[in-house]
Each structure stands twice: as C-alpha cells, then as structure tokens.
Amino acid sequence: MSDLTPRRSKDSEVTLSVLMLPADANPSGNIHGGVIMKHVDEAGGLAAVRHCRMRTVTAHIDDMSFLAPVKVGDLVMFKASVNDVGRTSLEVGVRVEAEDLRTGQVRHISTAYLVYVALDDEGHPTPVPPLIAETEQDKKRQAAARVRREYRLRREEALRAAAESFTE
C-alpha cells in the first residue's frame, strides 16, 4: 500500500534544464518540436512521481502550441508541477521557456498539460495522494485543471460514441 498522505504542489515541482544541441535541430537550426515534447513528458513524469512516489505512465497530453522557435544553443527550462489529482491520475502542467545564453533573453515557448496514471507493482492503476492547494495560484491552477478534466471526459465520450457508430 502506498503512502496517501496529502501533499503540496510545491513539493513535487521540477525544473529540467536542457541545452539544445545541433543533433536536436533541423537544417535551419530550429529545434524539432518532438524534442521539446519529449522533455515536457520527462519533466511532467518527474513531477508526477515526486507527488505520488510510485511509477506513473503518461495517459494524455493536451494539444501543444509553440509560441516561438527554439534555436541551437538555447537553454530550455521545463518547469513542471502537479495541478490536480483524481483517484489514480494526476494532471501536471509544464511551462517551457528558452533562454538565449548570449543575451539572457528568456522566451515563453509553450505550456502543456499532461495526465499521468499511477501504477502499483503489478502495473494496475492505484490511488494517489490528495493535493493540498495552499496558495491562490495553486487554487486557480486546480480549478482550471478540473475544467480541463471535465472537457477531456466529455471529449472521450463523444469519440467513443463516434467510434461505435462506425461499427454498426
């Protein structure tokens, strides 16, 4: 049985900093979106594990938009924290920022929301600790996460219904 003691969002915060290298880029020197997405998932997964202290798997990634390009030589920070939890799942928000190390300019690149499911030793979904929303910002992020969860559930229902109509 896992420890289900309620935990604060700030206790699971993660900042992953990665220097973007030529192997991560296209011929124009722009970093591939998939490279950014991989690191978003890594940072989000780390925050999820820090919250529940057990293995987690990625269940859903909301759509991602890239607001600015990332270039070779940029230092990219992936800042992740738990926004809300369900019974066996967690929503983690990841903010992506890129710093031009020569000028010090920091650009907001993307914000992503991911859902992770906690797994027990046999690989089955297992309960996660409740989240303590301490600050006003924590409470706002939690409320927004609950809206996104309802949207995901309604969208999933609609997709299931559409899929069933194809099999009839």
The residue ranges in which pLDDT falls below 50 over 5 or more consecutive positions are none
Termini separation comes to: 43 Å
Query: How would you spell out the order of helices and strands?
Result: EEHEEEEEH
The residue fraction in helices comes out at: 25-40%
Count of the domains: 1
| CATH topology term | Thiol Ester Dehydrase, Chain A
> Roughly what is the average pLDDT, rounded to an integer?
95
Specify the overall morphology: globular
CATH class: Alpha Beta
Strand order of the largest sheet: 2-4-5-6-3
Q: Give me the CATH architecture, please.
A: Roll
- Tally the helices: 2
- Report on the biggest sheet: 5 strands, antiparallel
CATH H level, superfamily name: Hotdog Thioesterase
Quaternary organisation: single chain
Radius of gyration, taken over Cα atoms and rounded to an integer in Å? 18 Å
Compute the number of strand runs. Answer: 7
Supply the helix-strand structural class: alpha+beta
Strand residue content? 25-35%
